[in-house]
Write a structure and sequence with these properties.
single chain, mainly beta, about 0% helix
Length: about 70
């Protein structure tokens, strides 16, 4: 979903990211976030996840640890 408001110079949207851990005990996902700000992060069941955005990165605390290869 993507909504563009040219008058306000705002782009609002949603993105889905599917991950496959390379090691066991995967608990935090760090993504590049150079040019956008994030207002909410949710898991696959729609539950909110804790996250922290700093200049250039978005760190998301996953709801549980994941094992190698699990999605």
């Amino acid at each position: 979903r993507l909504v563009i408001d040219d008058a306000k110079r705002i782009v609002d949207g949603e993105a889905t990211v599917t991950l496959r851990p390379l090691a066991d005990d995967f608990r935090t996902c760090v993504l590049d976030a150079e040019t956008f700000s994030v207002s909410a992060v949710r898991d696959e069941w729609g539950q909110p996840l804790e996250f922290r955005q700093t200049p250039g990165t978005l760190a998301v605390q996953l709801s549980r640890p994941y094992r190698h290869g699990e999605t």
